[in-house]
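check this one:
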Amino acid sequence: MISGIIFNTGFYQWTVPKTLPYGNDYKIRVIDADLISSTNVDTGPVIDDSDASFSIVSSTTTPSIRVISPNGGENWTIDSYQKIKWSALNDKTVSIYLKRYISCLYAQPKCRLTEPMPIIIAENIPNIGEYDWQVGNIVKKFEYQTLSSGSYIIEIRGNNSGEVDVSDKPLQIVYTNSPLNPSKQACIQATTFAYDPKNPSKCQEFSTPCDVPEGWLTTDKCQQKNTFLEPMEVPVLVIKYYPTQNGRTIDTSITLDIPQGRTIKEQDEITNSLNKKLIKALTEGSKYHGYKNSNALPFLTYKVIAEKTFLKRLPLTDNKIIDYFSIMKDLNVCDYVDNKGVKEIWIWAYASNYEIMWESNFSSIYGDISNSNRDPNDLPVCKKSYTVYTYNYGREYATALENHGHQIEHILNWIDGRDITPNDQWDKLLFWGKFVGRNFENKILPPVSACGWIHSPPNTEKDYHWYEKTQVFSDCEDWNPNRTGKKKPVNCVTWTGNSECKDDGGGEMFKIWWMQNIPGYKNELYYNNIKLRNWWEFIGDFDEALKIGKSLTY
């Protein structure tokens, strides 16, 4: 397998592994992951192969382009000046890109993550072999945003030859440059509260702003540290996009899944119904063991505080990706987020052959943690964090529910450190290894299945098989991180509650069941004698949960 599930951008840059044997009988197979099922894997429109074979041969020439520096192991501070060096023999101009390094994407086989979109440092510059870069100064369409700390690689692309080379190993970009005046002699006495973004629970009071350590962030006041957060309401801003040519009906030349002639009024009624079902399902999903405890309280409830409707198609970037930045900027999103308490923005839109949407997108001072290409510049960064979801109102609401499930996975994986963990160590992680119970290839870890993930229930390793009747033993309904819970046979009857394994479509019952097994409010679970957090805190109020600590345990 060249790659797992990736976004449908129409192209994929593949580096041919040196371990592949030479031959002239190779073909490429592409599978539509959205349409594939157990009955049509080898037939129909979901699969296509190369029309003719191609060859893989030995490289007889040395690549003409090479990254010299940074080539791995460097530590660069944002706003510092650093020299990027390369060698390019066949190009008059080159372009320089920065790519976030995710270790499992460079392993064989690769993990199921999409390669982040490159960040442009410089384009079409003379090939003189070096470039002085102020770290964080990037080519940007929109207003300035600093890079988040993390692991990155440099990519040099020859504009004439088309050849590419990247750093052999990642470099570290860190934010240690304080925005405060470093001169204490000129600093005015003023009580200042600040916290360490690497450990938000570490918040202190300082006599002057100049006493704040480098890299710390100021705040209005240090929050009193609680041991847990109470059930909360999640304020939501709902946005609807209805493309139309006549102001009355949906323009189905743009949209998929919408029957011709459907009026905007009819579609709006359907959208409102989907929105209500989604709110109900998300609320139910936050009830810890709600399927067997009728007294379980939802940790999260959702309230729509504002709604915007646009009778036009979604705005796009030059890359045919939804222009999230311009949408949010036009809405003055930071007013909603920082002043009105909005945590989530739900965009009800449509699937199309002409544009790419992200199921979830996330903006915070900690970077983008979402089921997207994690472009750090595609959303305005406000004082507080927020999540943007994009739904298809031409499908059942369970597809929107799935967007939330994937976002939960990305947030918990980030908290648990999966992004910086070698993929052969994922089985040791608290969330992915023990709760999901899978390795990086989606293989069930012995001795018994755990809870699976939003694509793959405990009784299968296949994607989207929510109605699989094969039984396996699982401890999910009595899960604890020490894996001493009661084991029982489970299959689709377990979550649908009926022998036909029927629900309203899209695996809605599995997704709610899976969410209800996430360690929730007052869960009383322990891991090596350390109490587990309520993991829903990070979904309901990411910033406040981080102030307690970046950990799934106390």
Q: What stands out?
A: The mean pLDDT is 86. The chain has nine helices and 25 strands. The longest strand covers residues 300-310. The radius of gyration is 25 Å.
